[in-house]
Amino acid sequence: MKEKQEIQEETSLPISSDADHHGSASHQSNASCVVKCVLFILVSVMVVLFVVRYGEEYILSGLADTSFEVGVVGSKGYEYEDTDNQPTSLLYIVTSSAEFNNVRRGNMKHHSKDRLMDLVVPVIKTSITSMQKAGFKVDLYMIVSYNMTNERRAAVLQHLPEEVSLEVWSDAVPIDYDIGGRKSDTLHKVQAIPRSLARQHRFVVKDKLWDYDMFAAFEDDMLVLGDHVKHHLYVSEKLQKFRKEAPEDIDDIRLWFGDLKIKQLQRMRPGFIRVEVLMNDEPNVTQDETEMENNIPFEYNFSDLGYKENQHVDPSICCNEKQLGLNITKMPREPSVSQLMLWETGIGALGVRELPDGSWVALLPGPRAFPGEPFDYEVGKFDSGRAGKLNNRPTKSSPKFMAQSAGWLATRNELLEMQTQICRASILPPFGEPHKRDGLYMNNVEFWSGGLQFWCQRDGCSFFRVIQLDPKNFSKHLMYHTSNNKQIAISKERRVLVDNLFAQLNGVRKVAIQQKNRIKEHPPLNKVNMSS
Questions:
Q1: What share of the chain is helix, strand, coil (3-state, %, to 5)?
Q2: Which of the residue ranges 233-237, 369-373, 520-524 has the most confident prediction, judged by mean pLDDT?
């Protein structure tokens, strides 16, 4: 305070003598030092704040801009920490494109149902409650296409379990010139691109990457339970253990049994299949005999795995509303085995594989050779067509058999490995090459929120998704699509009873075991014949 007074006194004196001039020069020197010190402190504070707020983003931006080759990893791939498979904090990201269900009367649209409160919120609440019971600390982030008012946000928050924080990104649909869109008139005007709402959760993941151990990003009508999260971790840990013990190379990567090498295991992930509960279980609701691949054997007998009785899928794990405490109008609350239906894959598109520990998995449709690049990470499988004649073999690129799960699960370290070592293109923003227009060009909902990017080749990670065939685990790979509307929109020949598929996969597994034993007893001279 005294120094401040002296400076004020000096600046108030007239410049009329040498002494006064000397005092003024001294003041200017002192003032200059003070200004420099203040500026230095301000700049230092700004630098610290910038690093704290944006440092992580710039680090990841650098990772995203780096060009990665397929399969370039260390000797054992990404080195996980001991705690990676026991995450405790989980960010549940829900993307929602509609607040109300609309009906058209004449040329006018009318709200017919409060979709947010009648469907989305009950599904979210049930999912979070289940995750909490499984031991996870859960927070919710909603990405919505509409403007969620404060009143509606408060209503959502009121229905959530305790200790759950809520963040909402309203009006989240990106805008751009819709180059690559289906309508020619969209090329020259800036407009909303609704399909790219599914991209926005990646920005949230990047922003929150260091705040949570695990992420679950799904569409708003998917019931994601604690059993799903725990099973993802269980299968991932199992595959990671195999990877740590795996050889660098093997003789024939196309075999459906024996060792798996590091590059193969690096690209194997647990998969999930969307299912619905049929409103009735009449025989004509799903495929009939002429539409089924009935040349593939149906086997409900798992006695070789220690089960004394025939085994079936368990609807209570994914879809029992009464047991889960979910209450959605007109939905069957305790579905039977004959009411569980899938529509996005079929036995003709699948194969089976024996893992190093002797357990068996089904492989969902996935990557194939990419032009000009080695396909040395292909995971060999015993194709279902080798177990019986297929009537309608799907093409490898058919979207009707891709089994997209309307979302994905991943730990932070899995995401880091994908971003830095595996995927051809960035899974987190910024979306540079080979993405176009920051990922807005052409990429559809399934690419982003359906998880297609993770298991496709182009702009993707080339993952092979596995479904455990042991009866106690198979049903944990099924996720309930609670809108229950595909059974109406999808043609009957694509509706498959889950229990039928389960039995046929077991039939294929048994034929694969027989073929494996024959090969081991009488190895062919030409190793190529072993996998062809």
A1: 40, 15, 45
A2: 233-237
